[in-house]
Every structure is written in structure tokens, then in C-alpha cells.
Predict the 3D structure of the following.
Amino acid sequence: MEYKFIKFTLENSVAVITLNRPEVLNSFNIPMAKEVQDALTKCEEKNSIRAVVITGEGRAFSAGQDLAEAAPKDEPLADPGKFLEESYNPIIKQIYEIEKPVVAGVNGVAAGAGANIALACDIVVASEKASFVQAFSKIGLIPDSGGTYFLPRLIGLQKASALMMLGDKLTAEEAEKIGMIYKVYKEDEFEANLKTLSSKLAEMPTRGLALTKKALHQAMNNNFYRQLNVEKEFQIEAGKTNDYKEGVSAFLEKRKPNFIGD
Ligand code: T3D
């Protein structure tokens, strides 16, 4: 598939998906969503890709649904369910299921589905210029794109309810303070830090990270006893990887490990 609304680059085992409709703050139309889905499929399929970054071009990460597409001139409003089915739910599921770490590099404002795509990622870092808005209530919709699943788990029900009902804009610094995101970087250090973080992830034991991701997902719904079994099961799997052998050997030989990702 040729990309018109995203940029897709691969460097040192890190794939970077850049949302690229800056004139409308990288809001999603269906063609852009399809391109993101295609790029995520490539990330899943290619063994050489060991970490994925999602970021935005220009001053925004993404303003969510393109409201001009949702409300075409002289036509009735589009059915919101269509956008969830065609655009957002497949993307959120791909981010959740892909067996590689996915980093949201939130370079600017992230609103509506844009905010919740970021929150679905495994690690969210942001520029100090970034902000997060659960914009849905302001247009009479409910939060979607996994937001009602992830946000209360990240920051608790009380804060999630308030942010989702009021639609207040949260600065990146505030988001970091309440545990909604991992880290805020100074604007002039954002790109370099994002690159360092994603390259580091791409050099780590990829299979182990995938199992870590899956175990954490299961922990969201398991009780304590079931989760101990999940840890045992996944640890047995991690213990069979070449990267486990390499990690232990490197430690004992006092050298830097060279992980191959399986
Ligand atoms: O049916 C369905 O919709 C179902 C799907 C739902 C998923 C959703 O994501 S619903 C939520 C949709 N998003 C929003 O409601 C956010 C709308 N945008 C804003 O609230 C603000 O733009 C921001 C808070 C994100 C940023 O504000 P600001 O002041 O920095 O920028 P701005 O001036 O509002 O926007 C700049 C331009 O981008 C502007 O165009 P112009 O005037 O320069 O030609 C604006 O119209 C455009 N833009 C911003 N957001 C969208 C958009 N165009 C289309 N769709 C947008 N979502």
C-alpha cells in the first residue's frame, strides 16, 4: 500500500509511524486509519522490526476523528459506529496485540481518539508542548478507542470520570504527575530522547518484552492466584529463548549482551 497520510520509516529495527495531516492536526479520516492499520500489520509481520513508535507531524499528535469527515456538508452526520469499526477499534487491537513494544511519542496536542490511541500504547512519552484532551463530551459523544478501558486503569476511576466528563485539557506535565504517561521531555530534547528510548527497546529481548506486555494485560483482569500462574507459564517460555541464555552469559562474562529478539 502506498502511503499518503502517514510516513513510515524503519531505522535500526525501530519502525516509526508518523501521522501526517498536519493541516488538520493529524485528525483521522478513514484512509489515514487504513494506512496506520497497514503499517502496524507490517510491524507485526517483519521480524526485523523490534519496536514501534507512533508520533505526529507538526504541532499535534492527533486531534482524533476528522470532524469534517464525520459531518460532510449538506449530508447527515455519519454513524460513529462506522468509524469505530473501520478506523479505531482495529488500530487499538493491533497496538494491544502486537508482540513488540509500541511507544507513543506525543509531540503535541492529542485529543479524542488521538489521545486514546496514545494511551493504548505500551509506553507514552510526551514533549512538554503536548497536551491531552478527552474531547468527546464536548461534541456529545462518549470516549472511545479503548479510553474507557485504559484511562481508569492508569489514573483511577475518579480522575478518569472527571477528565472524560469535563473534557479538560491536561498538560503533559500534569499527565506525567498523575501517572497517565511515562515521561515528559523538554521540547528541544524530545526527538532525541524518543529515539534513544525506542532504540533501547529494539535492542532488548523482544520475546521477553512481548510476554511482559501480555502478562501485564492479563493482570488487568486476573486475580492474584491466576496471575501467579500466568507469570510461571510465561517465565517458562522466556526461559527457553536464546536471549535468556545470552543475558545470563553476558552477565557472568561481564560484557554487554547482544540480544537477537528470540
Ligand atoms: O463519529 C465520530 O466522530 C466517531 C469517532 C469519534 C472519535 C473522536 O475522536 S471524537 C473527537 C473528535 N475530536 C475533537 O472533537 C477535537 C476537535 N479539535 C479541538 O478540540 C481542537 O482543535 C484541539 C483542542 C485539538 C486543538 O486546538 P487548537 O486551538 O490548538 O487548534 P484549532 O485552531 O482548533 O485547530 C487547527 C486546525 O485544525 C483548524 O483548522 P483551520 O481553522 O486552521 O482550517 C481546525 O478546524 C482543524 N482541526 C482540529 N481538530 C480537527 C480539525 N479538523 C477536523 N477534525 C478535527 N478533529
In short: DSSP finds eleven helices and ten strands in the chain. The CA atoms of residues 70 and 78 lie 5 Å apart. Residues 80-97 form the longest helix (18 residues).
